[in-house]
Inverse folding.
């Protein structure tokens, strides 16, 4: 499987990302509602949206990487101790090979929110958002040609915008962001989406930034597929309570808008569009909604219920690979489902043990499908099965082996826990995780603002 280029270049399958917890995986003991007919107007309604885009006038500054050399830390080549990387007997070794420090805006160190591998070069894009009331954020661009020595190419610092999520266009020439702004681009709502063309180095051209408001409190996730942009927005605002906005990716003009509560994450691929919805006044559990694509837009298909989803409104990831969807489920861990063709969750990944073991992010790759990643490999390594990583908050990151690549259209995927990244090498809360297409590298965005790169080797 060519890895979705939110994490790899170019964006070949789309997802947007978040976390998870404990040891084995088991068949679901939940019986969520099956595919349903379109829901009542008060729960899901198509609405008009005539908001237009504006060119960014201020609030963003590019700082060259050479002026921030202290943010890239040197890493010892010594093997990590047992307290740094916990690997059960099922077989995984992991070595920390790269680490960066968080950017600061107005003296405040910003937590990392999302990470994307891709572009025309071996680049890593990291978004940041301040957790307080001020709308402060940043985007880092790293060259990771040599993961052991990441090179900070440039940073975009925002004094009016929190950047909660980002994605690359399929051709790797444009970066899209979702977040919250205090800039006056709409008189009543702070949610926004922004489009940046990239220069020859892969750095956003802020003078050509095009942004527009989204009728909600905060935009939480963004995905691009074949020239169309899909944005999910959370509760609050006048939509009335968030939902999905479908836009032309070049102009940010609205094509469709669907209103429903607490749309946290979104993904799009040739199979269709899926969104992750949090519990709200309409439902007491989370849900995954699916939409079919056509020449005239997307249309609602099904809703599948999730039990759990107790994470904060701005945390959650959903990813598509063929007919399979991988979604975070908060305190209940994560789930694998086939949203377009079946009535139940296929497999659940249990929550991580320990305090605050809440799944914030997830990523899945099939190395046997993708041979174009030339990251470092070990001769005795066997990263040939499907690999799934979950970002489990303060419980760290768990790595799973799965046969899901053979179960894309039928059957129930199985999982085996290979190891856990935690301890002193991964302090704080794991917010987001990204695997290389061959599963030999993993990038973790942390709540302490640091980004860490590990080299992985999984045994049979």
């Amino acid at each position: 499987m060519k890895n979705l280029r939110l994490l790899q270049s170019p964006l070949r399958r789309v997802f947007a990302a978040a976390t998870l917890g404990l040891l084995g995986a088991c068949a679901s003991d939940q019986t969520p509602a099956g595919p349903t007919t379109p829901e009542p107007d008060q729960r899901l309604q198509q609405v008009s949206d005539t908001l237009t885009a504006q060119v960014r006038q201020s609030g963003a500054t590019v700082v060259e990487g050479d002026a921030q050399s202290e943010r890239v830390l040197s890493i010892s080549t010594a093997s990590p101790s047992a307290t740094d990387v916990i690997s059960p007997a099922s077989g995984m070794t992991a070595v920390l090979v790269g680490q960066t420090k968080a950017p600061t805006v107005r003296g405040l160190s910003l937590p990392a929110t999302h990470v994307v591998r891709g572009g025309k070069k071996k680049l890593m894009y990291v978004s940041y958002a301040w957790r307080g009331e001020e709308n402060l954020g940043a985007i880092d661009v790293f060259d990771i040609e040599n993961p052991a020595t990441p090179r900070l190419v440039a940073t975009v610092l925002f004094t009016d915008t929190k950047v909660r999520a980002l994605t690359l266009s399929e051709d790797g020439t444009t970066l899209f962001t979702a977040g919250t702004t205090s800039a006056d681009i709409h008189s009543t709502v702070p949610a926004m989406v922004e489009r940046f063309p990239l220069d020859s180095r892969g750095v956003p051209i802020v003078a050509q930034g095009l942004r527009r408001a989204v009728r909600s409190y905060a935009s939480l996730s963004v995905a691009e597929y074949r020239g169309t942009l899909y944005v999910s927005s959370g509760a609050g605002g006048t939509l009335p309570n968030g939902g999905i906005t479908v836009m032309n990716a070049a102009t940010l003009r609205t094509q469709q808008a669907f209103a429903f509560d607490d749309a946290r994450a979104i993904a799009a691929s040739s199979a269709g569009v899926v969104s992750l919805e949090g519990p709200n006044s309409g439902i007491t559990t989370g849900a995954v909604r699916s939409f079919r694509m056509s020449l005239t837009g997307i249309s609602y298909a099904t809703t599948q219920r999730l039990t759990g989803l107790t994470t904060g409104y701005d945390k959650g990831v959903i990813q598509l690979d063929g007919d399979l969807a991988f979604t975070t489920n908060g305190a209940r861990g994560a789930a694998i489902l086939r949203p377009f063709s079946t009535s139940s969750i296929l497999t659940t990944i249990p929550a991580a043990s320990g305090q605050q073991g809440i799944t914030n992010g997830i990523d899945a790759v099939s190395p046997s499908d993708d041979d174009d990643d030339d990251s470092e490999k070990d001769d005795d390594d066997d990263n040939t099965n499907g690999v799934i990583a979950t970002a489990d908050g303060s419980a760290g990151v768990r790595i799973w082996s799965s046969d899901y690549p053979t179960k894309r259209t039928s059957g129930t995927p199985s999982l085996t826990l290979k190891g856990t990244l935690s301890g002193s090498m991964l302090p704080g809360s794991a917010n987001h995780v990204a695997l290389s297409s061959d599963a030999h590298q993993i990038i973790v965005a942390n709540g302490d603002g640091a980004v860490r790169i590990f080299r992985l080797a999984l045994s049979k």
Notes: DSSP finds no helices and 37 strands in the chain. The longest strand covers residues 297-306.
